[in-house]
Amino acid sequence: MSQKIKDYKYEVSIIRLEKAMRVPRELSEQLKGVLSAKRIRELKKDAVNCPVQGKIVPFLQCFVCKNFVRRVRGVVHCRGESLQN
Question: For the whole model, what pTM was predicted?
Answer without folding.
Answer: 0.83
